[in-house]
TrEMBL record:
A single GO cellular-component term on record: plastid
Matches recorded under PANTHER family: EXPRESSED PROTEIN (PTHR38357:SF1)
Organism listed in the record: Kingdonia uniflora
Name of the protein in its database record: Uncharacterized protein
Length: 87
């Protein structure tokens, strides 16, 4: 059920709620963030931010940084960057 929550919120719960009655919620958030399917979701969210430019809202972005970020994501996903269009 926690896996349906936004990743930004789960990361906040995991990082912030580490005291008393809320410790159990932080541990549950940690578990969800480690599930392979949810980890895949986090990777795709990162790729979407880079491709849509949403990642540039919080930091200064240049074309060079965007290309580098996109290349990093493509390597993680195993995309074939040498694939050429057939003419």
């Amino acid at each position: 059920m926690l896996g349906t929550l936004p990743s930004k919120y789960l990361k906040w719960v995991s990082k912030t709620l580490r005291a008393r009655d809320y410790e159990e919620w932080a541990k549950l958030a940690d578990e969800v963030l480690q599930v392979p399917v949810y980890k895949d979701r986090l990777e795709w969210e990162l790729a979407e931010k880079i491709l849509t430019g949403d990642d540039c809202i919080n930091k200064t972005c240049s074309t060079r940084n965007l290309v580098s970020d996109l290349l990093d994501v493509s390597v993680r996903f195993g995309w074939d960057n040498d694939d050429k269009w057939l003419e």
